[in-house]
Write a structure and sequence with these properties.
1 helix, ten-stranded parallel beta sheet, mainly beta, 42% strand
Length: 421
């Protein structure tokens, strides 16, 4: 607090890694507040249920909060336990808002007439505690927030509208976001313009008034592209509760296994056109919160669409490798050039093993850092493995040059591959 209090616009405040017991931290407009490493596992701000964690009051877009874990914020009879934004537009990056509480709305974060940008942020295990509460994870009214590669998970209150997020904004944009296992539904959307691209909405619990997936309360404009809505309980994939709903636009989406139906109601005629499908996305381990995809998932590369959902392949230790012809053993170890190369969605790598041994295939960036494990098997024969341009967490990597490395019984080979946009 002291450092922020003495700072002025344009100042950078770097906080050493550790746990700090503070609350009601008022962020000054124009400062750059960062943890030592810029990662959320560096600095924890524990409010100890004594007040909110961060407060942004008329903060401009030149303000940044980077690399913090905000926990145990608590506010009674009001909104925003972890983060309170009033007419504020901060840039919030690599932050985690967990175990926060608001008696009214927005246990993790409350945004009023604000247009912040959240990148790589986590809103999980937050709560609200009122029959009419909205947004246990995040609640937004007015403004135009943006969420990029954010996670909304295990936020809870059984009668809450939008356990993951509730919004009635001017506009709201989600890219690469994950909404899973929220109580009160994944999202509840009021009036405004909403755009969801490459998002995963799965295994959320709704209520009689909401849907496990997306509940639409008021007439709005909704554009949903390359998204998975699957295995949500208590209602269809998308439920309209308003009297005069408007037609949404869905393209390249997979709706599957939702309790009240998938392509039903207003979106019934969307099924089978514009790349829309209904297929089991094959999550790696739904029970244990692993929503990456098995390498056999059709969502990894739908023709004309590419990847559907927020996360790529995550369980490929055996499933990603296919034996081509065991009877015709290769004379030597080999690692062929990938096909296609360059590639934009998937590339196939062919390799051979002349005798039974452990084989490891890994993907590396230009610095040599391993970004993905493609295969790790003990076998003999010729194999193919597919790489979809994602890292070990299932996130899409940036376009550029990468290398595939094969190691087996003293043999080592490297091949260059190029990922396009």
């Amino acid at each position: 607090k002291a450092a922020i209090d003495s700072a002025t616009a344009g100042d950078t405040i770097m906080v050493a890694c550790g746990t700090y017991y503070e609350y009601d931290i008022h962020i000054k407009s124009g400062i750059y507040l960062t943890s030592e490493t810029g990662s959320s596992d560096c600095v924890t701000i524990d409010a100890q249920d004594l007040g909110r964690v961060f407060i942004c009051d008329y903060v401009e877009s030149t303000t940044s909060i980077v690399g913090f874990k905000a926990i145990h914020g608590r506010i009674y009879e009001e909104n925003g336990g972890g983060l309170y934004c009033w007419y504020s537009d901060p840039r919030v990056t690599n932050c985690s808002f967990r175990y926060n509480f608001a008696e009214q709305n927005g246990g993790g974060a409350w945004l009023r007439s604000s247009s912040p940008v959240f990148t790589n942020c986590d809103f999980s295990w937050n709560r609200v505690n009122s029959y009419s509460s909205a947004g246990a994870g995040v609640n937004c009214t007015f403004g135009s927030p943006t969420f990029i590669n954010c996670t909304f998970s295990h936020n809870t209150w059984s009668t809450c509208k939008g356990g993951g997020l509730s919004a009635s904004c001017d506009s709201l944009t989600f890219t690469g976001c994950v909404f899973t296992k929220n109580e009160g539904g994944g999202l509840s959307l009021g009036g405004g313009v909403y755009r969801l691209t490459n998002c995963t909405i799965a295994a959320n619990d709704g209520s009689a008034a909401t849907s496990g997936g997306i509940a639409v309360e008021y007439r709005n404009q909704m554009y949903i592209d390359n998204c998975i809505i699957a295995f949500d309980n208590d209602g269809p994939a998308i439920r309209w509760t308003c009297a005069d709903p408007s037609q949404p636009t869905l393209t390249c989406c997979d709706l599957y296994g939702n309790a009240g139906g998938d392509w039903v109601g207003l979106i019934a005629d969307h099924y089978g056109v514009n790349g829309n499908i209904s297929s089991d996305p094959l999550f790696c381990d739904l029970a244990n919160d692993d929503f990456t995809l098995d390498s056999a998932s059709v969502c990894l590369d739908v023709p004309g669409c590419g990847l559907i959902g927020a996360l790529g392949a995550g369980c490929r230790k055996f499933a990603g490798v296919e034996i081509e012809n065991v009877s015709d053993l290769p004379r030597n170890f080999f690692l062929s050039e990938s096909v296609p190369n360059p590639f934009s969605s998937n590339t196939v790598i062919h390799f051979g093993v002349p005798r039974a041994t452990e084989v490891t295939l890994t993907a590396h960036d230009v610095s040599g850092r391993q970004i993905d494990l493609l295969a790790q098997v003990r076998a003999v024969g010729e194999f193919t493995v597919r790489w979809d341009g994602t890292d070990t967490s299932g996130r899409r990597v940036s376009p550029g040059i990468y290398f595939v490395r094969m190691q087996a019984d003293g043999f080592s080979a490297v091949r260059k591959i190029i990922l396009l946009r």
